Amino acid sequence: MSRIIFDSGISLDGFFAGDNRSPQNPMGGVSGQIHSWMFNQKAFWEYLGFEGGEEDGLDGEFIRGTIERTGAFIMGKRMFEEGEASWPNDLYKADVYVLTHEKREPWIQEGTTTFYFINDGIESALDKARQSAKGKDVRIQGGANTIQQFLNAGLVDEFFIHIAPVFLGSGIRLFEGINKDKYDIQIEEVVPSDLTTHLRYKLIRK
After folding, report:
1. Residue 120: which residues within 8 A CB-CB, separation 6 or more?
2. Res 52 pLDDT > 90
3. 110: how many CB neighbours lie within 10 A of its CB?
4. Which residues are in the Bacterial bifunctional deaminase-reductase C-terminal domain (predicted)?
């Protein structure tokens, strides 16, 4: 049965992205600071279809494991717009459901990635993503506001946080405005590495 998950990097002071986000400035220009641990791994570049990365260690195993368990994605329009112009073809290798008010036909890419544009809310997107996932997990890809909506609706089962040892000082916080009474939260795993600390949490709805 599909679990609903998200997997996000944040700064030590809790920021998911920086200021002044746009398609010309994805994530507010802080991706290199938050996600350097991924960029260092061969597994990340293999997923993109390129050669790269200096290491193939425990961090890489984490990347491969998360990819393997994911059967469909959900993201917000802002994240989609930031990536549309620059993402390589067939990046997600699965169906992706984009939350938007825009009416648009599906974008079918070469390979196995199709973007569907959902106009009737998060639960509709989730129902469709579950069908696409075929028993694998549904991953709420982002941005922060989309993750917050799913958390506050009580729809998330598990999440992974990768805390980079940097302070950003400002930007978009991942857990802004979260309903603190929605879940009991259990720490499932803590994995330190050189460039981040991996944390896995299980959520139990109250």
Report:
1. none
2. no
3. 7
4. 4-187
